Amino acid sequence: MNAQHAWAPVTTPPQHFIDNRWVPAVTGATLPMIDPSDGRPFAAIAFGTAEDVDGAVAAARRAFEGPWGRLAPAEKGRLLGRLARAVGDHAEELALLEARDCGKPLKQARADAAACARYFEFYGGASDKFHGETIPYPAGYTVLTWREPHGVTGHIIPWNYPLQIFGRSVGGALATGNACVVKPAEDACLSLLRLAELAAGVGFPDGALNIVTGLGREAGAALAAHRGIDHISFTGSPPTGAAVAGEAARRHCPVTLELGGKGPQLVFADADLDAALPVLVNAIVQNAGQTCSAGSRLLVEASRYDEVLERLGRRFAALKVGPAWADLDCGPLIRASQLERVLGFLADAERDGIAVVGRGTVAADAPAGGYYVEPHLLRDVPVHCRLGCEEVFGPVLAAMPFVDEADAVRIANATEFGLVAGVWTRDGGRQLRLARAIRSGQVFVNNYGAGGGVELPFGGVKSSGHGREKGLEALYGFSVLKTVVLQHG
Ligand code: TXE
Which among 182, 212, 240 is the best mutation to test ligand 1's pocket, defined by most ligand atoms within 8 Å of the CB? Predict the structure, then answer.
């Protein structure tokens, strides 16, 4: 493996994409993009400020009140379908950008590009099939409900899955007729800038989809506070989500928040371990554990705890970490501060005497400047310690035993999060009891995230956030219901 890799040159200029055009930052300033695989700058983006956000919101408003707003739902759906095909046609180019920008192994980036295309395909098909109702009322009246777009929607996208989260969020918003302003994460935006260019190429009217890049605390905060934004969709950390929601609340702007998780995987003694073990590993190793729905807590029935850990430990020991282009089990983490954060959790575990059951390896010739950490399987992690409760956002699986079903539910519900849970048991009654008892937006039984989930409503309870994206359910969040009462005698 070389310390350098012959990536294709980045063709997106260090500019915003507003009104279907490349637009430099008002200040002319740019920010470097760092390759997590080697820690070196490889491209630049525009350093957006509140003035740039103003320009993007104004463009979106013109589109909403003009050509985009006037387009029939079927036409909007057709454009989304064309975008899906364009993403499919450029999937390899987008995947390579995503891999380099995020440090993802290529196979993961390819899966993300395919999922992104699928979101646009799904929402393109939904655009003209989302409608209101009539409500029975006294004679002489007719009552109708309409589903209307909010207007201009803001989308603050994190760095872990830019293509997928853009697809699920912007796809739903465009399908319901909104015009969008997107603020990608400063750590990873290149695939989204290219995607906006592709959208212009397939015929989206000027201003329907705009991208402003820059720092979260500047451009992101300006978007969250903007009076021209009618709905905000945010995916990121709980504290930033609270700040965004606080700004939105000042002007009573609706928000959808997806704020991560601490996904419990409950393995009962009757589980099919041959089926479960590879899925349990993948659920924490995928994207180096930087996944909101990562299965980061492993709860195993005491009678099979040692056996499960022994078998999983061997799988962890075989995991390989390296640069995105090497396409191993794990890539690097996104940036130095995330690496420090994950190493901090591991240092705490060592100080507290928590045993490592299995640990992967970083490839010897991985570039020295990359943000690499070995996957870790840790045993007997106390339920209420920081490692047991907080989102690590790295490839670290915290195992703990449980004695019976009630104990399993108590531990599963013992964190502030509630996004995704997994239950592994052959007992049908228990499957349903647990699906009800676990406080979580999604519960998977004898699988975890199978099928990718474009069709499946997704979002959390408790500190994991509120509102739903993905599936048809997202369309309710990206629209507002109007009730019309006609008295006609
Ligand atoms: O998140 P931030 P960070 C979690 C994960 C991770 C931790 C910190 O646990 O370790 O958050 O990551 C934008 N106003 N998740 O610091 O700050 C920012 O530009 C408006 C879980 O990267 O929440 C980026 O686009 N926007 C998660 C986005 O918010 C602001 C995905 C996320 O950044 C802003 C990512 C502000 N004041 C991290 N400050 C998930 N749910 O999947 C920042 N941003």
Answer: 240
Which residues participate in catalysis according to the annotation? 258, 292
Q: How does residue 4 score in pLDDT terms, banded at 50, 70 and 90?
A: low
Q: Which of 260, 427, 418, 27 is nearest to 409 (CA)?
A: 418
Residue 284 forms part of a structural domain: yes
Q: What's the pLDDT at 3?
A: 52
Mutate to test the pocket of ligand 1, among 33, 45, 52, 156 (most ligand atoms within 8 A of CB): 156
Mean pLDDT of 257-269: 98
Q: Are 207 and 69 in contact (CB under 8 A)?
A: no
Going from the Cα of 487 to the center of ligand 1, the distance in angstroms, rounded, reads: 50
CATH number of the domain encompassing residue 138: 3.40.605.10
Residue 74 CA: distances (Å) to CA of 111, 177, 289: 28, 11, 39
Question: Are residues 286 and 179 both part of a single domain?
Answer: no
- pTM equals 0.97
pLDDT at 1: 45
Cβ(164)–Cβ(115) below 8 Å:
yes
* Residue 414 CA, ligand 1 centroid: distance in Å: 23
Note down the domain range covering 45.
3-259+467-483
Query: What is the spatial distance between Cα 334 and Cα 330, in angstroms, rounded to a whole number?
Result: 12
Closest CA to 244 of 264, 261, 258: 258
